[in-house]
Amino acid sequence: MSKNMQAKVARVEEKREKRPFAVAKYIRVSPYKVRTVLALIRGKSYKEAKAILDYSNNGSALAVKKVLLSAAANAEHNKGMDREDLFVAECFADGG
User: pTM of the full predicted structure?
Assistant: First the structure.
């Protein structure tokens, strides 16, 4: 790898460890259905994402909302961040 690429990879890894996150496992909903909800909240602020999930009538919105609330609680408790400053940086649903 080139020198610049190695520096970029190192910066990304440093930031990744500082980000609060939450994981939900063994959710009995198709990843295809969850991905539609995740596309709605990706890149939004915490407050806006929570409002979208509150009023979404998709069945997987409840599971996604629980993970969002868990990630916000992790950020507040473990990292000392404020909920109002948070946003959804990345979210994904894998199969299996």
Answer: 0.81
